[in-house]
Amino acid sequence: MNRTISGALLAVLAAALVLLPFWANSGLVFLAGTTMVVAVFALSWNLLFGYAGLASFGSGGLFSIGAYTMAVTLRGGYEGQFLLLIALSTAIGGAVAFAIGVVALRRSTGIFLAILTLALAELLRITLAKIHWLGAEDGIPSIVRPKASIGVATVDLAQGNHYYWFLCVACALLVALCWWIAHGRFGRTLRTIRLDTERAAFMGVDTHRYRLVAFTISGAIAACAGSLFAPWAQIVTPDIGNMMRSTQPILFTLLGGASSFWGPMIGAFLFSAIEFSTRTLVGIQEIITGGILLGVVLLFPTGVAGAWNALVARLADPYRAEAKAKATTLRPVKE
């Protein structure tokens, strides 16, 4: 029943996103497209945190690498090879993540890895702000939305809402890829490593290699999300990879729930809905938004997805749910 209800809600949300341009204004459409991109970005981070047990605070830097790669290549006149440019941006992001992981994962974990990756992301942001060829602090504006060639068909993504629908398809494919990774043999091995690294190593699992691959995949998907975002926003600046961008997927994961695959996406859409609803409250928007987020985190420690799963389980079988709750709170005392 849980999967049926969740699947139905997912289908309704997907249909609403696809049909959004037919009834919503351009501002809401832009917000929805941005939310889809950052939701995929958050999913890539949770592959690293929720499955491999690694906390990186530098994912915003990889996002900016993908965005800048796309912006520079489109400015160079390669808009006719848009799909190849996405692949190139993804490959560069994965290569950078691999290079960082080779050095960092052998020498640091936990909070040390988080601080190291945050420092590298800030170093990248400051470097981009100093390069005049890349626009320095002003960034690269007026990024064109190119044409996408798929076999014999060519779609002009600059026309109307074509790029929005392209984002829907691209984000859906990336979500499907993340689902396949998380629920396959590789994802199960990562969860084993997260739960008990020493036991996994004793069983013959090369924990360093698996974590390095997870770090590389997470970085590649983050860069891919950045490459999709550049033509959508039509401007990239060094602040696209600042500390706020790096902490964004962490916030989304806390809101939605790190233990659920859909948690980061739920958190991303929930955060966007809260910000959109409080946009007219000038001067107190941040206070109200922060209070709502704090309340959600305190009321639902396992995130919105965890609370939803618990509610559906209770409605489906209230007696079993009540017995399970009693079993976890009233444990027999051993004599």
UniProtKB/TrEMBL annotation:
PANTHER family with a match to the protein in the record: ABC TRANSPORTER ATP-BINDING PROTEIN, HIGH-AFFINITY BRANCHED-CHAIN AMINO ACID TRANSPORT SYSTEM PERMEASE
CDD domains for this protein: TM_PBP1_LivM_like
Transmembrane stretches, start-end: 47-70, 82-105, 111-128, 163-182, 212-230, 250-271, 291-311
Protein name as annotated: Branched-chain amino acid transport system permease protein
InterPro entries: ABC_transp_permease, LivM-like
Keywords from the UniProt entry: Cell membrane, Membrane, Transmembrane, Transmembrane helix
Species per Swiss-Prot/TrEMBL record: Aminobacter ciceronei
Compartment(s): Cell membrane
